[in-house]
Amino acid sequence: MSSCPRLRHHLTGMALGATNRLNRQDAETSDKLLASLWRARRRGSCVEALPRAGRSCARLAGVAFALALAVSPGVAFAQAEALLDEGKSLMKKGKVEEACPKLEESYRLSPRSATLLALAMCHEKQGKVATAWSEYIDLGAAARKEGNKRLEADAKARGAKLELSLPRLTLSVPRAAAVEGLEVMLDGAPVDGALWGQARPIDPGQHKVSASAPGRKPWEKSVTIKRGERKTVAVPALAKDASAAAQPAPAAEAPPPAAPVAAAPEKGSAGSGDGAAGAGKGAAGPGKGAAGPGKGAAGPGKGAAGPGKGAAGPGKGAVAAAPGQGAAGPETDASPAASPAAEEQEPSSGSSPRHTGSFVIEAGVAGGALIGLMDSGSFGDLSAYSYSYNIPEGELIAPCDDEVCHASFDPAIGPFVGGEAFIGVALSEDLHLGARVLGGYRFGGGYLVVGGPSASMRLGRLWLGLSGLVGPVGQQAKVTGIKGEIPSEVEHLNYGRSEVAVNAREGSLPESALVETLAFGGSVDVSLVLADLPSAGWTSGALLLSVSPTVMKGLDGWVFAAPASLGYRFY
């Protein structure tokens, strides 16, 4: 019972501290406990303080502990509510730098969807678009679990809006740089090797990229990235650290050395060959010594206690626990030294940049308008028609064929639907070179099948490209007549005309016909990245919405096309 006053004093302090943070209901409960403790203090006995609850100070401790457990969630919730209100108030005043930390602490104390929404909005106003985008994704997942479809849709819309302006940073690690033990860090946080070469969303501003590896000199670089910008930072091959290689390995306690072998006339012990303590290749320098990475025993020479190549050094020695050579006899060591080439280890499969040098394939559906201004051509066999012109002997009636006669057509315009494709190679992450094909059917009759070399360059969320195109184009157009060619030597007898209308019987001409031509030209391709979906698998790529205004010159007239396409570019 002697410990009861001390226990009462300790529990009284705990209860008084908790009382200041309780709500009204919890405060009343605490007041009752304090009153009981005060009576116990006056009477000087735990037995009189709690006659109904028991006659043990341990029961008093249990009651206080249970009270603390019961009220602590309420305390945390109250604090989170106060921080949330304060953060929202600061946000309304435009003080986002002060508001965001308070909202972060509120969410830590009480993780709720309402707090996460306010936090994401604060980070968005702060300019941390990647952080806000990630929080909107988490908010959508939480709202889906809660069954709050309205909040889920709102979070999805906000996240999709931010995704178009996300900066993305790619950490490229070439094969030559991916040595064993390489650690790449972004802003002090390690980046998993599976994410090397992938464009990752990042907040705008300045960031630090660093790399380190055992036995290599560390490297770091600062990079500044703007909103909607894409950048690639290539980690170079780290230079070998000579100072680290010259330092001895941590000396583990070596076992007693083996009995010395009698001196031999090879790489001698005390007087022959390279010398042991003096006349050899040095005494205590950084050579091939015993306590260092060399081949000797007591100095940098190659001889020591025997004709072997080392004794107790961590280099090519015998007794110490190092991968050196030699034991204590005339033979060389059992494990050969690793060659310098062996230090370069094969990188992981995800270490190579997935863009540069890789094949690029794009496929999509296309549709738009096709305008044909081919005013002449052939619609089939014209031998059924004839025409006449003046010659010196009089009037000549000449039969038509495809060489001397041609039909004339009205302009034709109509919608077409088809597809487009691109295949090439990524010269860099932002430059693709290859070939493009565009084809489709024109409603009302006609077609377009063209293709040629193409190059495209990425500028933020846009891809801009140029394509050279060639191919056949056909259009179903209204036939306005047939004309025959007049030989140049008799043009002066036909009022200088080079052609004349064909004598076609009424109703013999078709109302419309398919006119075809071979056309040459090009297009300007503008593509918007709707979604960038990088990954380590074959599905890595981007969803593109493209428009490709096209102008082509046919053998007889012009062709204009205005296709729009939705495609996926695999890279």
TrEMBL record:
<feature type="repeat" description="TPR">
    <location>
        <begin position="80"/>
        <end position="113"/>
    </location>
</feature>
<feature type="compositionally biased region" description="Low complexity">
    <location>
        <begin position="260"/>
        <end position="269"/>
    </location>
</feature>
<dbReference type="InterPro" id="IPR019734">
    <property type="entry name" value="TPR_rpt"/>
</dbReference>
<feature type="compositionally biased region" description="Gly residues">
    <location>
        <begin position="270"/>
        <end position="316"/>
    </location>
</feature>
<protein>
    <submittedName>
        <fullName>Uncharacterized protein</fullName>
    </submittedName>
</protein>
<feature type="region of interest" description="Disordered">
    <location>
        <begin position="197"/>
        <end position="228"/>
    </location>
</feature>
<keyword id="KW-0802">TPR repeat</keyword>
<feature type="compositionally biased region" description="Low complexity">
    <location>
        <begin position="317"/>
        <end position="353"/>
    </location>
</feature>
<feature type="region of interest" description="Disordered">
    <location>
        <begin position="244"/>
        <end position="357"/>
    </location>
</feature>
<dbReference type="InterPro" id="IPR011990">
    <property type="entry name" value="TPR-like_helical_dom_sf"/>
</dbReference>
